[in-house]
């Protein structure tokens, strides 16, 4: 089979707060509220995902403990960066800024944010931004051609996320290096 | 984006969970990729199943998840769903819905549901007819 998680669930303490958080945080990933209905016990449940395919079911039955870890697959590094910014702005707590995690694998680029209940939500992309790079470079080159300042313009657009990542996550992750692989993300 | 990349699952009894997930996920072609025991990690027993870009991480040490979690795996065909159910039941799971069409979800939704030893609701689903 093609190994894939079809859908999963988590439970939160404040349903309305979670709804606002997930709507804002996951919008940069093209992801949003797809369905919502009441459960038998009167609590509500929402299905979050892509149009026609909810894959994250969130209910208001009290927060899941221990907190869960869920990672969403982004299409490129820009989406990972945008997810992180949106999630922090929506009340999430930093748990690892966007950047490479070479200890997972060479091209692992991810960001981690704790939701209002402490659930560890990640956006990850596994491949380098191959198709996007030449286009960006061409655009940057065009823009800077006018200014005859090619190099600074190029490095400003291309290097920014990587530099940011090299500082923060490395420092953050290292002390926990002896813990479990995924435990490090806690 | 393209959906879920990976997810974690907290369990209370690690050896029981290993037995259950080894068997249930093998039926879906998902193998144990890496294991780190408390002796290495200091705090958690961790089992990672699947590929780097599509995995489930079973963690013991923080207690079982409450309220219990629901996790569904995509199966390639109905046969895999059936095999998952059989293997999961034989490995200490509890029936929560035998293999069959769930027309209330959609006409081709063929799934089986088994509670793992901690009561987490684990499903295999095939959406193809």
Describe the overall structure.
With 186 residues, chain A is α+β, with helices and mostly antiparallel strands. In chain A, helix 1 packs antiparallel against helix 2. Chain A is built from 4 helices and 9 strands, in the order βαββββαββββαα. Helix content of chain A is 35%, strand content 26%. Chain A has helices at residues 15-26, 77-89, 132-147, 150-173; strands at residues 5-11, 32-38, 44-50, 53-59, 69-73, 93-94, 99-100, 109-114, 120-125. In chain A, the strands form 2 sheets. In chain A, strands 5, 6, 7, 8 and 9 form a 5-stranded mixed beta sheet that branches. In chain A, strands 1-4-3-2 form a 4-stranded mixed beta sheet, covered by helices on one side. Chain A has a domain at 8-125: 2,3-Dihydroxybiphenyl 1,2-Dioxygenase, domain 1 (Roll), CATH 3.10.180.10. By secondary structure, chain B is α+β, with helices and mostly antiparallel strands. In chain B, the strands form 2 sheets. In chain B, strands 5, 6, 7, 8 and 9 form a 5-stranded mixed beta sheet that branches. A 4-stranded mixed beta sheet of chain B has the order 1-4-3-2. In chain B, helix 1 (14-26) packs antiparallel against helix 3. The radius of gyration of chain B is 14 Å and the shape is globular. Chain B starts with a strand and ends with a strand. The chains are: A alpha+beta (186), B alpha+beta (129). Chains A and B meet through strand 1, strand 4, strand 5 and strand 9 of A and strand 1, strand 3, strand 4 and strand 5 of B. Strand 1 of chain A pairs antiparallel with strand 5 of chain B.
Give the gist of this structure:
The complex is a heterodimer of chains A (186) and B (129). Chain A has 186 residues and is α+β, with helices and mostly antiparallel strands.
Please render the helix and strand layout as text.
The complex is a heterodimer of chains A (186) and B (129).
Chain A lengths: L4 E7 L3 H12 L5 E7 L5 E7 L2 E7 L9 E5 L3 H13 L3 E2 L4 E2 L8 E6 L5 E6 L6 H16 L2 H24 L13
Parallel strand pairs in A: 1-4, 5-9
Antiparallel strand pairs in A: 2-3, 3-4, 6-8, 7-8, 8-9
Helix pairs in contact in A: 1-2, 3-4
Chain B lengths: L3 E8 L2 H13 L5 E5 L1 H4 L3 E7 L2 E7 L9 E5 L3 H13 L3 E2 L4 E2 L8 E6 L5 E6 L3
Parallel strand pairs in B: 1-4, 5-9
Antiparallel strand pairs in B: 2-3, 3-4, 6-8, 7-8, 8-9
